[in-house]
């Protein structure tokens, strides 16, 4: 595994995320997407990223590296989105919260001295998951949500273009 590449991806992501939403109005950031209008809005995605940064990846990776048999704390992203009312949160505060947590987590990651990425946690539902799996998934999680954010922005441009079409740009690939 190229852990350095995964960590560098984690380092780059906050700047990419900030650049993608810079100057986007709060109406767009709060607009849900998808054909049914129920897909998470950008503000919901930002809140999710901030919470995952403090409650999921770092916590589970650290437990796997130091106490692989320990039970991981539970997470419920959909439930948390509702109970914390992500939709009504300030998107810029959520972004700042995410970035502050990421800085702390990167400091921790860079402090690790030759971690054994092969150490596994036996998850009761998904089976064995290694520290390397967690690091790679952490970096991939960022990018999956970046794709989700750009999809919301694409949808907004398409709506704004009416009665004209964005078809000349190409098809949206999922």
Topology:
Elements: H1 3-21, H2 26-29, H3 42-55, H4 57-66, H5 77-83, H6 91-111, E1 120-123, E2 127-130, H7 131-160
Can you write the helix and strand succession as a string? Answer: HHHHHHEEH
| Tally of individual helices | 7
Rg over CA atoms, rounded to whole Å, is 18 Å
The separation of the N and C termini measures 26 Å
Fraction in helix: 55-70%
Summarize model confidence as the mean pLDDT: 94
Strand tally is: 2
The largest sheet, given as strand count, sense and whether it forms a barrel, is: 2 strands, antiparallel
| Beta-strand content estimate | under 5%
Low-confidence stretches: none
The name of the CATH superfamily reads dinb family like domain
Walk me through what this model shows.
This protein has a single domain (3-169), classed as Four Helix Bundle (Hemerythrin (Met), subunit A) (Up-down Bundle). The protein is built from seven helices and two strands; from the N terminus they run H-H-H-H-H-H-E-E-H. Helix 4 (57-66) runs antiparallel to helix 7 (131-160). It is mainly α. The protein starts with a helix and ends in a 14-residue tail after the last helix. A two-stranded antiparallel ribbon has the order 1-2. The protein has helices spanning 3-21, 26-29, 42-55, 57-66, 77-83, 91-111, 131-160; strands at residues 120-123, 127-130. The longest helix is centred in the last third of the chain and has 30 residues, at 131-160.
